[in-house]
Description:
Blueprint: E1 3-8, H1 15-22, E2 28-35, E3 38-45, E4 62-63, H2 68-72, E5 79-81, E6 85-88, E7 99-102, H3 115-131, E8 135-139, H4 145-152, E9 157-162, H5 165-178, E10 184-188, E11 198-204, H6 207-220, E12 221-233, H7 237-245, E13 249-257, E14 260-267
Parallel strand pairs: 6-7, 8-9, 8-11, 9-10, 11-12
Antiparallel strand pairs: 1-3, 1-4, 2-3, 5-6, 12-14, 13-14
Helix pairs in contact: 3-4
Amino acid sequence: xxxxxxxxxxxxxxxxxxxxxxxxxxxxxxxxxxxxxxxxxxxxxxxxxxxxxxxxxxxxxxxxxxxxxxxxxxxxxxxxxxxxxxxxxxxxxxxxxxxxxxxxxxxxxxxxxxxxxxxxxxxxxxxxxxxxxxxxxxxxxxxxxxxxxxxxxxxxxxxxxxxxxxxxxxxxxxxxxxxxxxxxxxxxxxxxxxxxxxxxxxxxxxxxxxxxxxxxxxxxxxxxxxxxxxxxxxxxxxxxxxxxxxxxxxxxxxxxxxxxxxxxxxxx
Length: 268
């Protein structure tokens, strides 16, 4: 059973602040939608939940009708991205001329349709094609899409971490769908628990999460290694550059997509 609540966002709303609150909620997931120029927060839960969010009314929950899982498939279609990748759900055929990444939408963030995921995929493909890292670290892996894309693009192995057990279950399923479960190690927890360094680190998180773990990202990125980040609004790119510079990163490239920002750094 699935319950959904659509909540229009006032112009004064700061999405990163909302995300920081929402990520602390149990049994509630969320997404952002835009219709005719108006932004919405969409909540999902297995039952109606009394959620209090500053500046927003209480959610009005509605139960999704029987068969919603099938109808949802109409909204997730395969698509090419970058120069090599093709992202598609398991009920669609891939593209024989591209590297196929199969993602079954679940509670783990990242079907490839969101701008932040696409920005990470673009930077990932670029770095892998030039540097050929031996291993990649995916922080906040969600559905596992970035770790899966990395090994399919030629990285020998990946380590993917997430604090959300539902996300890790979704990632595990997607690893199997892509046949890469022997090349990606899933870790329950945050970057604080990891040791060692990685030549390429990717993190698709919200703005305030980066402020909390920027030192860990620096510790885990090898000297001369690359860091790809997204998950913040494009207007906050300058603040992200300043934060990462304070822990030893140098900006290499910045990109934007649909109001979201993405950055590529090198350490040292």
